[in-house]
Amino acid sequence: MNHIEAFSKYFIFTFPENINFTQVGKIAATGLKIQSAFFSPLGDIPGPFSKRFFEGSYFSKKKPGKRDYHNKYGHLVRIGPSKISVSDKDIIKQIMVTEDFEKSSIYSKMKGKDEWNTFNMIDKDTHKQRRRLVSSAFSIKYIKSLEPLFESVTESFVKRINLDTERTKEGDEFGVIDIWQLLRCLTLDVIGETAFGGTFNMLENDDHAVSRAIVKLTRGVEFVFYTSPLADKFVSNIISERTHSKEKRNDILQILVDTQHAKNTKDRMNSRQIASETGLFLIAGSETTSNTIGFALIEMCRNTDVLTELYAEIDKVDLDEGRILFHQEQIKNLPYLNAVIKETMRLNHVASMGLERMVTHDIIIKENIVVPKGTHVRCCLHVAQIHPDYWPEPLTFNPNRWLKNADPEPCTDAFFPFSLGSRNCIGKDFSMNEMRLVLATLIKNYEIKPISEQMKASEEKHHFLTLTIESGSFKVRMKPRAT
Ligand code: HEM
C-alpha cells in the first residue's frame, strides 16, 4: 500500500459547522501530523504504521535496539514522524563521516543539570575545542605512560581472584568467581587511578559511592552522575586537592587540571567542567570495557575451542622473570587475542540502542530518497555489525574471520565498535590496552571452566545506555595454572 492509499484508508474528513479557535488549532495540528505522516519525503520509507505519527522513547529499556524492525523492513526504517533508523553501512558513513551531522537533542537529555562534556555536547565548534583539550590525555604516547597504573590495578585483580578462589575452592581446586563483578571493580579502579588520582579500592571493598551512582545511571534509575550528592562531593574534593597541590602526578586528571594555567583563556577548563569530564570517563570507560571483557569470556566459555586456541597463543609468550603480567608490547600484536576482542565487539556492540544524529540540511541518500533538514537519524551500528549482507554466518562467534588470509575477508567498513567520524570514541586505545592486558593475564594465570546455569542466564541481555547482561553477574570456575 503506498502512502496515498494508506491516507485514504485511515482518514475521512468531516468539517463541523461551529468550531472555535482551540478546535481550529487542534485541527491544524492534526493536519500537520497527517501531512508529515503521509506527504513528508520520508513517507515512502517502510516502517510500522503507528510510527508515522508517534515515536517511542529512546530510553525505553530492554528494547532490542531496532534489530527487529530492520529484520522486518530492511536497512531503512521510519521510526517516527521525522525519524528514521539506518543499518546500511554506506548511509551510516554518509551521516556520521561525510556529512558529519551533529548529535541529536537526545544527548542534551543526558546532560541534565551538569556541565556539558565531550560526550553530550551538541554544538560542533564547542565540541571540537573541548575534544582538542581532552585528546592529549588519550594519545597513544600518553596512554603508554599510564601502563604502571594499569598494571598495579591488574595485580590487585589477580590477588582478589586468588583470594576468592582459595575461599571457594572445592576438591578439584577450582573456586567459583563472579568474574562479571570483579571486572566491574577492576575497570572502575583503573579509571580511579588514571582520572581521579587514586584507586577507588573497589577490588578490596566491592563498594564505593561512585560505583553506586553508576549502577543507578546504567540501570536508568538516575540519569545524571552528579545528581548523586556523594559522588559530586567526592569528585569536587579531588579536583580541589589536585588544583592546590604542588606535586604533579602522571595521569589524565593532571592533564585536565593543567589546562587551568593555559595561556589562552579558551583553553582553560574550570573545575565544574573538569568534574563533568572525569565523571564522563567513569561512565564511558568502565562498564563499556568490563562488559566487553566479560562478553569475551562468555563467548569463549560457549565456544571452548576458541578458549583452547587462545591458551595456545598466549602460552607461546613468556612472562619476564618474577612477573605475572605481560608488557603491552608483548601482547599488542597477538593476532588471535585481537581477533577474539574484535569478534566480541562485533556481536556485542556497547551502543545497542543506536546513535542519533540530526540532519541539518536536506540530503539525498540511496535510491534518491530525500532526507529533509530536521530529520533525526538513528544509526544502528550494532545491526550493521551482524547483518547477513555484510557478514557470513553473522551470529556465529568466529574470531578466525579476523585473521590474516581469512576467506572471505572481514567487511571492515561495516565494523564500528568505537563509532566513527568526529564523535568516535576517544578512549579506544585506552580500552584496547586494558582489554588485552586483562584477557592475557586471565588466560596466562588461570584455568577457566564454564558453569552451565550461568551460561543459560548470561543469554538474557539488558539494553540501556550500554549493553550488559540482565543478571549483572556471571560466574565461572577458576583455578591458578601450574607454572
Ligand atoms: C570497550 C570499550 C569502549 C567502547 C566499545 C566504547 C565505545 C564508544 C562509542 C560507540 C562511542 C560513541 C557514542 C555516541 O556517539 O553516543 C564512544 C564515545 C566516547 N567514549 Fe568510548 N568506548 C569504550 C571505552 C571508553 C573509555 C575507556 C573511555 C575513556 C576513559 C571512553 C570515552 C569516550 C568518550 C569521551 C566518548 C565521547 C567522544 C565524543 O563525542 O567526542 N570510552 N565510545
UniProtKB/TrEMBL annotation:
Does the keyword field hold Heme? yes
In the UniProt record, does the keyword Transcription regulation occur?
no
Question: Where along this sequence does the record place binding of heme?
Answer: 425
Q: Which UniProt keywords apply?
A: Heme, Iron, Metal-binding, Monooxygenase, Oxidoreductase
Q: Identify which cofactors the protein needs according to its UniProt entry.
A: heme
Family under the similarity heading: Belongs to the cytochrome P450 family.
| Protein's recorded name | Cytochrome P450 CYP5313
